[in-house]
Amino acid sequence: MALLLIGMTPAAALAQPPTADSARSSVAAEIAGQVSGKLKDFYSARGYWPVWIDGETVGAQADDLLALIETSQLDGLDPRDYDPRGLRRAIEEAQSGEFRALARAELALSRAFAALVEDMRRPARGATMRYLDEELEPRRADPSAILRQAALAPSFADYVHNAEWMSNFYMRLRHARALYDDDGRRSDHIDVPTGRTLKPGMSGADVEALRERLGLHYEGGYDRALAARVRRFQAVEGLKDDGVAGPQTLAALNRDPGERRRLLAINLERARLLPGPWVRHVVVDAASARLWYYSNGALDGTMKVVVGAPDSQTPMMAGMVRYATLNPYWNIPSDLVERTVAPRILRGASLVGMKYEALSDWSANPRRLNQSEIDWQAVAAGAQEVRVRQLPGGNNAMGQVKFMFPNDLGIYLHDTPARDLFARPARQFSNGCVRLEDAQRLGRWFFGERLASADNAPEQHRPLPQPVPVYLTYFTAVPEGDGVRFIDDVYGRDGDEP
C-alpha cells in the first residue's frame, strides 16, 4: 500500500502530480515499446531510462544538439542529414508532457546525436596521421557505443553542450571558423590605410575604409558598432581585443581572409584526428613546439618542447606510450657520427673521453668495439657506418628519462640537459624526437608518482600502469584566448593540402 502524507485523503494523494522519477519511469516504459535497431542495445542496458528527458520535459541539452546540427556545415557536413526540422517538431510535441511524445523525442534526439558524433569524428579522406597501434586507428562507431560513452560522463548536459567527444582544439578552431564565416559579409577587396592608429570617436577616409572592410556602411565614423566589429576580429586573430585598430590589427585585416579560412579548414581536419578530453592522452604540436596532456574531461597540463628541425621533421603519427627508460643511452644518428664524432676522433679525441662507446651492430646484445678497430677515415667519408652511443649521465642528450612509443623512426619523448632552447620562441632544433621542458612532471602524470631510478644502472625500463596514446600533430592555427594564433608553416605542409 502506498504511504499517504499526514492529513491527506486517498483521493487527494491520487491527484498529486507525478514525481520526476515516476515521470521518467513512464517515459522509460514508452521507450521500451518504441525503440528498435541499434539503439536498443543502449537503452535495454540502462532499463530504457531516458537521457534527454528531465522529468516531463525535454532537457536543455536538446537545444545544444540542435545548435551543433544547424551549424554542422562548419564540420564539412550537411545539417539536413540530421533533420533539424523534424527534431524541433518532436520537441514541440513533447511539450505536452504526454509520455509517448516524450519517448518519440528521446529516440529522435538519440538517433540524430549518434549520427552527428559519428560524422564529426570521421577523418577526412586523405588524413595524414600515421597510426602505430591498431587500437588508435579511427573506426566506425556503433550508435549504442556513442551514447554509452556520453551517458558515462558526469554530466550528460555538459558533454553535449561542450561537444566533449571532440578535442578541445577542434571545438575552439570550429568557433573561430564560425566567426570568420560570419565575417564573410565584409568587403575583402578593400585595403585599410595603415598610416595611423584608428580609435573610437575618429573619422576620415581610413575609418570609412575600415567600416566597409568589416561589413558596415561607410558612414558613421568610429562608433560603437565598428568598435564591436574590431573587437570580434581581434579576438579571432588572437590579438588584444581592445577595439582599437592599431598596426597589428590593420595588418591582419589587410591579409587575404580567404587564406585564413583555408588554414582554419586545414587545421580543423588535423584536430579532428585527436580524441576528446575524456580519453587520457598527450598531444605534441610540432608547429608551436608545445605539448598538452588530458584526462577525465580536462586539460591537466602543458609545457614547451623542442621538436624536429625543418630538415629532420617530427612526423604526424600516433602511438601508445608503453614504458619509460631511466638512465638511457643515446644512440647517435649515423649522419651525426659521420659529421661530428668521426672528425673529432681524427683530431685526437677519444670515445672514452667523450663518454661514448662503439658497438658492433644494432642488435640487443652487440659487442663493444675498441676505438682502434674502426676505420674512422671511412666513417667520416660516409663509406662505412658504425653504431655509437652516448653513455648515461648528466650530459647525456636524453637526460634522465625517455618515454617510448615503439616505432621504426626512433621517435620518442625525452628529457634533455640543453635547457637554453626552451627560451626561444621557435623551437625546431631536434633530429625528430621531442625534448621535454619538464620530463619529471610528465613522468608523474604517466605513473602517478615521482619517477626515479633505484641506482645508476643504464636503460632501466618501467612499464606504464596503463599505456597512454600520444598524438604528434602540426597546427599552424592554435587556439589562444578567445581566438586563434596563426603560426609560420615551418615544415611547409600547409601548401600540400587544399
Low-confidence segments, given as residue ranges, are 1-17
Largest sheet: 8 strands, mixed, barrel
How many strand units? Answer: 18
Beta-strand percentage?
A: 15-25%
Rg calc: 30 Å
Provide an overview of this structure:
- The protein is of the alpha+beta class and 498 residues long.
- Helices cover 35% and strands 17% of the residues.
- The protein has helices at residues 10-14, 20-34, 39-45, 61-70, 84-94, 99-121, 143-152, 156-161, 168-182, 205-213, 224-237, 247-253, 257-272, 334-346, 376-380, 439-447, and strands spanning 53-54, 57-58, 130-131, 281-285, 290-295, 298-308, 317-326, 330-331, 356-359, 368-369, 387-390, 401-404, 413-414, 428-430, 434-436, 460-473, 477-480, 483-486.
- The strands form 4 sheets. An 8-stranded mixed beta barrel has the order 4-5-6-15-13-12-7-16.
- Strand 17 and strand 18 form a beta hairpin.
- Helix 3 (39-45) packs parallel to helix 7, helix 5 (84-94) packs antiparallel against helix 6 (99-121) and helix 9 runs antiparallel to helix 13.
